[in-house]
Amino acid sequence: MSFVIAQITDTHLALTKPFFRDNFAVAAAALRASKPDLVVNTGDVSVNGADLREDLVAAKEMHDALGLPWIAIPGNHDIGDTQETARKQPIDETRRARWLDVFGPDYWMRDVPGWRLLGINAQLLASDLTAAAGQAKFVADAVAGLGGRQLALFLHKPLFIETSDDNEMSGHLLTPRARAELTAALNGVKPRVTCCGHLHEYRERHFDGVRHIWAPATAFTLADWFIPTHGGEHIVGYVELTLEADGSFVSRLVQPEGLQPLDLADFPDAYGDVRQIKAAMDARKAELAAAK
Ligand SMILES: [Fe+2]
Ligand SMILES: [Fe+2]
Description:
five-stranded mixed sheet
């Protein structure tokens, strides 16, 4: 028996900043037509849930309106960013409490035939929140109890860009400390597949026996001059995963007709002027490199 997951990500929804709602509506229609067993949103569900409860509530209501089973994990724009790299909006207790109140758990597990689905809060890794230890124990318990199941890991940020000893310190991927914490919690167990979003770049690669899927954003794409791609593509869409009870799986890119390849640079009211954001990001990167 197959279990079909639609992995959507980076929907960036809000009532007062409705720029990306039409793309969500297109994706929602495609999802309602294809009726996956589960929709998983791998974060940045909202425009600014890190500061605004109403953005989280709006995003939650739009997911409820799908009329399909769905679950989400938080992205940096929903719950705050990794403390080590955040220029602003680091994850903290207040932000996390807001997510828990509106969306429920920020890490979770689901068992389906032949597989264990494990969703984690990537921004909680390498943080000073007490829940970081709770999440690590949850992951350790989840892998200890795998039995014969395959593990599918969902998190907002890529584990690494090229190799698992990638030491880039930036908000783009797990920091070395965050990755080390996750690796320790996994205790030598390798997921069969990892599914993330965040970079708004579609890329699928096999590395060391693990398939790493970077799903494209539903909301918008990014210009190459703003954030260069890492061997993938700046496109919009989502990924459909079909998990088989024997542990095999297939993935495919879905690009529903009508989904617009919106460029964040054309929506300065969403996050500000992209050229200024890039300048700030470059300055922060230099700061982090100097601090190493
Ligand atoms: Fe995003
Ligand atoms: Fe993100």
